[in-house]
Amino acid sequence: DGGITQSPKYLFRKEGQNVTLSCEQNLNHDAMYWYRQDPGQGLRLIYYSQIVNDFQKGDIAEGYSVSREKKESFPLTVTSAQKNPTAFYLCASSMKLTNTEAFFGQGTRLTVV
Amino acid sequence: LAKTTQPISMDSYEGQEVNITCSHNNIATNDYITWYQQFPSQGPRFIIQGYKTKVTNEVASLFIPADRKSSTLSLPRVSLSDTAVYYCLAHGGNNRKLIWGLGTSLAVNP
Predict the structure, then answer these.
(1) Comparing C-alpha atoms, which of B94, B93, B100, B91 is closest to residue B27?
(2) Residue B29 burial (CB count, 10 A)
(3) Residues of chain A neighbouring B46 (CB-CB closer than 8 A)
(4) pLDDT digits (tens, 9 = 90+) for B45-82
(5) Nearest CA of chain B to the CA of A40: how many Å?
(6) Which of residues 33-72 of A touch B (CB under 8 A)?
(7) Residue A79 distance to chain B (closest CA, Å)
(8) A21 close to A110: Cβ distance less than 8 angstroms
(9) Which of A22-36, A93-107, B67-81 has the lowest mean pLDDT?
(10) Which long-range contacts (CB under 8 A, 24 or more apart) does B7-13 make?
(11) What residue in B sits closest to A34 (Cα-Cα)?
């Protein structure tokens, strides 16, 4: 089945540690995105990538890093510089940045302990 | 950037038709209206999209009047499984510029 897969579903991190969230898609989409969702707030864009080997900062990129070495994969690293990392993280993809239909993964809930 | 406004919450009962209205007063000429559905602890799912008049698919209908300053998502005969948050977005052909609000939390009661 075609789709977008995030792993793990739940992740616990100690303060001061970096952690990497996985996002893989087999939809042959060029564009991929990372969002953060907090209770009582809408989705906020962290990073996006229009094509392989290219990515751009979104609205809340501080404390995060990404890579796009393969078309299928867009991992997100939450670094120790992110002051409030506990949140629900969503990865999405679309055919192009301009396509209006985006496909989302199931999300990763990150908790800092 | 087109900001959308929709009710924070709505209640309904099984079998009823639910209409969720979204306001987008400063919508741009090339903006499409897109609706997503999100269940708790899951990613949003695309429902329907339109530019003007009416669009219908197997899940919902979308009504957009001529002035395009508002739109209405219509869910026919809702069931308990339609309990979710529904997001209205005005999309001008660049996902980078999407503004996600709080959505409308729909509760369908038995």
Answers:
(1) B91
(2) 6
(3) 101-103
(4) 999 999 989 999 999 999 999 999 999 999 999 999 99
(5) 7
(6) 33, 35, 40-45, 48, 56, 58
(7) 23
(8) yes
(9) A93-107
(10) B7/B104, B8/B102, B8/B104, B8/B105, B9/B104, B9/B105, B9/B106, B9/B107, B10/B104, B10/B105, B10/B106, B10/B107, B11/B106, B11/B107, B11/B109, B12/B78, B12/B106, B12/B107, B12/B108, B12/B109, B13/B78, B13/B108, B13/B109, B13/B110
(11) B96
pLDDT digit string, tens, across residues A59-95: 999 999 999 999 999 999 999 989 899 999 999 999 9
Nearest Cα of chain A lies from the Cα of B89 at a distance, in angstroms, of: 10
Whether residue A43 and residue B102 make contact (CB cut-off 8 A), yes or no, is no
- The residues, any chain, with a CB within 8 Å of residue B2's CB and separated by 6 or more, are B24, B26, B27, B28, B31, B90, B92, B99
Q: How far is B45 from chain A (nearest CA, A)?
A: 7
Q: Name which of B55, B96, B99 to mutate to probe chain A: the one with the most chain A Cβ atoms within 10 A of its Cβ.
A: B96
**pLDDT category, B23, cuts 50, 70, 90?**
very high
